[in-house]
Amino acid sequence: MSDISEALDDAAAQSASSNESERLDGPDREPKWKGLLEWIGVFVVAFAVFALIRVFVVSPFVVPSGSMEPTILVGDQVFAQRVSAHLGDTPEVGDIVVFKNPISDSSHEILVKRVVARAGQTVDMIDGQVYVDGVALKEPYVVGESYPLPMQAPGVSIDYPYVVPEGSLWMMGDNRENSSDSRYFGAVPTDNVVGTVFFRYWPFSRIGTM
Fold first, then answer.
1. How far apart are CA 21 and CA 33, in angstroms?
2. Burial of 19 (0-12, 13-18, 19+ CB in 10 A)
3. Is 182 annotated in the active site?
4. Which of 1, 19, 31, 202 has CA 20 to 30 A from 190's CA?
């Protein structure tokens, strides 16, 4: 009886050891590092998608100056769509665009202004009113009167009426008496356009499309 009992004990021990081995080495148990790698992969893919969207689709911008008041106030945060710029589409007159400052030594590398005229159009300012191709613009969003500035950036000379060169845009801020725009630095190359502003996402009290 003793031998039979010992044999049964040995069989039970071997069975328990086999089950424990299956629990440890079975297909349902994965190494912890594998799960960590999966999470890292998810974060890498998410970051790559976010970066691509920011560069090619939509980018956020903070407006640092009051040149677009009252349409856009200092500190407003806006989204600009970049698809049109990457496709080579020219913004329309009246669009608010983000563009690279044509004055390379300026403290502001990116500017926000409104498109007033496109290539081939003639800009003039008479008695505080902007004329494009001889027609006075209706600009209900503008504050102040529109006059040529008394001085231009170094190397820039502007005579009115002014014909916008090919591949360029005439930009002006809505705050006409407090805006260094195309009256100062001249027409802006369309290649400088980063995107077209379409939405203000902050402050929350003024959230909405532009």
1. 20
2. exposed
3. no
4. 202
Select which of 67, 179, 180, 182 is catalytic. Answer: 67
Is residue 55 within 8 A of residue 82, CB to CB? The reply is yes
pTM over 0.70: yes
Predicted confidence (pLDDT) per residue in 49-108, tens digit: 555 565 557 999 999 999 999 999 999 999 999 998 888 899 999 999 999 999 977 778
Q: How far apart are CA 195 and CA 55, in angstroms?
A: 10
Burial of 81 (0-12, 13-18, 19+ CB in 10 A): middle
Three-class SS of 132-186:
ECCEECCCCCCECCCCCCCCCCCCCCCCCCEECCCCEEEEECCECCCCCCHHHHC
HSE-up of 43 (CA within 13 Å, CB side)?
6
Q: Which of 105, 89, 4 is nearest to 97 (CA)?
A: 89
The active-site residue out of 65, 113, 179, 180 is: 113
What is the predicted pLDDT for the residue at 9? 46
Residue 67: active-site member = yes
Helix, coil or strand: residue 76: coil
